[in-house]
Protein 1
Amino acid sequence: MSDYIIRGTAASGQVRFFAATTRELVEEARRIHGLSRVCTAALGRLLTGGAMMGAMCKNDTDVLTLQIQCDGPIGGLVVTADARANVKGYAIRPTVEIPPKKDNKEKLDVGGVVGNGVLHVIKDIGLKEPYVGQSNLVSGEIAEDLTTYFAVSEQIPTAVCLGVLVDKDDSVKQAGGFIIQMLPDGDKGVDMDALADMLELRLAAFVSITGLMEDGMVPETMMEALFQDYDVVIHDKLEAKYACNCSKERVEGAIASIGRKDIQEMIEEGKPIEVKCHFCNKNYVFDVEDLKQILSYDEE
Ligand code: ZN
C-alpha cells in the first residue's frame, strides 16, 4: 500500500496518535480537479487531516465531513472521509493561483488562498441528526485550524501537523501528516507535564513534515522520532485512498429533493439534464424518461 494511516498510542497510552502518508491520494485529487499548486496544498492538507479524523471514528459506517467556508480566492473546501480511510474532497475554485509567501518563496500561501472563515466538522454516526461542531479559522493554514477546532469544540489538547510538497512539474512530491492527542490523565506513572514539554520541543523541530519525508521518514519512524524515549505502540495500519461512492441512485435522490415543480419544468423543456459529482467529476445524464421516473417515485 502506498498511502496509509497508522493508529497507535505512546507513553503508556497517555497519548494517541494518527500518522499518514497521502501522496497518491492528493495527486489523485489534483488530477481529478485540475488543482493549481496552492490549491493542491490547501485541499491536500485538508484531505490528509480529514482522512486521519475519519480514522478516529468508532464505527465503520461513520462519515466525517470537514467544510471550510472562507473569504479567500479558493472560495471554500469540502472533504468527506469514512472510518476506513476512504477520502474525497473538492475546492470551490480549484484552479485559482496566488503568489508564494513573501518571506519564503518556497512556501505556497495556503493561508492566503483560504483567508478568513469558519471550519465546520460534521460527524454522521447514523443518528437522526449528525453532530456538528465548528470553530473560526485562525490562519487558514489548515493544521492550525484543526488544532483550534479540537481545543475549542472538543476540548482535547491536540497537535496537528500537515504538509504537501508540490514538485516543479506541479505533481505532488510528498504529502502527509499526524495528529497527536493527550488523553485524560490516569495514574500510569507518566509525568504528563514533562511529556507535554518534551512534545512541545520535538514538535517545534517538526516544522516541515514533507522535509522529513524527503529524508526518507515514514509515519512509523516519524512517531518514533517524535516520542523518543516514550514507548510507541502501533495498533493498526489502514490503506488510505481517494474514493467516491457516488451513483446514479444517489444523484437521483439529490434531484428529487429539488421539488416537483422544478422537475416538472425540466420535463417540459424536454432536454436531458447533466449532473456532475463535485467529488469525482463523474457526469450523470438524466433524460426526460428518467425525470418522469423520479416524479413517479415521489408520488408513492
Ligand atoms: Zn463522485
Protein 2
Amino acid sequence: MKTIAILPGDGIGPEIIAEAIKVLEVLQQDGLDVQLEQALVGGAAIDATGHPLPAETLALAKQADAVLLGAVGGYKWEQLDIAIRPEKGLLGLRSELELFANLRPALLFPELASASTLKAEVVENLDLLIVRELTGGIYFGEPRGVRTFDSGERQGFNTLVYTETEIERIARVAFDSAQKRNKRLCSVDKANVLESTELWREVVTTVSKDYPDVELSHMYVDNAAMQLVREPKQFDVIVTTNMFGDILSDLASQLTGSIGMLPSASLDANNKGMYEPIHGSAPDIAGKNLANPLATILSVAMLLRYSFNQETFAERIETAVSKVLQAGLRTQDIASENTKLVTTSEMGDAVVAAIKENK
Ligand code: NAD
C-alpha cells in the first residue's frame, strides 16, 4: 500500500484538494491501493503552529510515497517576515525532498482552444512537457552577490554552474518522460555562448546513447522561445536549465490560456514527487466554490503516472476530464458561450461520475 501526503494549504487549496480526494476515493473503490494522510502547510500551518512547514508535516512528506499539494499563501500572511511566510513551506518541501526535476505539461484540451491568446489552429491539441532542472544552475550557484569596486561602482553577479551529475540526472528524467510519450526530446541551452551549457549539451548527448528509441534535438534558448510561440506543436518534451525552464514553462503555460487547468510534478532521484496545480491560492475567489479543480485533479493523474506507475488509472482521470469538458461543463475561469457554468464541487462530482462510467 502506498501513502499520499495531502497538503491542502490555503485559499482555494482546501476546496480543490477536496475534489482531488473524491477522485482518489472513487479509484480506491476500483482497486487503487493508496492511503491518504493530511497535514498542514503554508498559512494554515502558521496559524496553527507558528511555522509554514511544521516538523510533523515534513516528516509525513518524507515518509509518504508522494505528496499532493493545493496551494499556499494569502493576504493574511503578507506582512510576515519573509523567512516565515507561507511560500517558505513550499520551498522547504522542494529542498528537503530534493525535488530536482520539475515537470510542467502544457496540454490544451480541444474544447478550450479559444481560451488561448494564440490562434486556435496553433494551439489546438497542444501537448508538450517541459522538464526543468529545479535545484541547480544560476539560481543556486556561488559566488553570488553585489560587490563595490574602489571607484565606488557596484556590480551584481551570479554564477551559472552545472556538474555532470546534475545534468545527467535531469537528462534521464527527460528521456524517461519522452519514452512514455511521443519519444522526441529537445534539449534547450545556450551552448554557443555559455560553457556550462556546452557541457550540458555534451552530457545530454552522451545520455541519449542509453535511449536509442528517443529522437534527441538541441535548440538555443532564444530560438526555443520563438518556436514555442510560432509553432508549439513541433515539441514533445523539452529539457532545460533552471532559469531557462522558469521562463519557458511560464510562456508555455500561457499558450493554453487557462491557469486553472495545468498540473505539475517535482520529482527526486527515485521518482518520488510532489504534485500541485501551477496556480496559487487565488485568495480573491477562495471560499466561494468558484475555483477550477481540474489542475489539481490532473495533478493526481500525474502522481499516479510518474510516482506509482499506474498508467491506467492516470488515463482514466484524464479521459474523464476530457469527457466533462466535451459535455460543456465549465468553471467560471474557462467559461465561454454555450457552456454550462458549474461550481468547484459540481466539477469534481462530474469528473467522478465520468470515471465511474468509464471502467
Ligand atoms: P494565483 O494563481 O493564486 O491567482 C491568479 C489569478 O488566477 C486570480 O485571479 C485567481 O482567481 C485565478 N485563479 C488561480 N487559480 C484558479 C483556479 N483554480 N480557478 C479559477 N481561477 C483561478 O496567483 P496570485 O494571485 O499571484 O497569488 C495569490 C497567492 O498565491 C499569493 O499569496 C502567492 O504567493 C501564492 N502563490 C502560491 C503558489 C503555490 O502555492 N504553488 C503559486 C503561485 C502563487
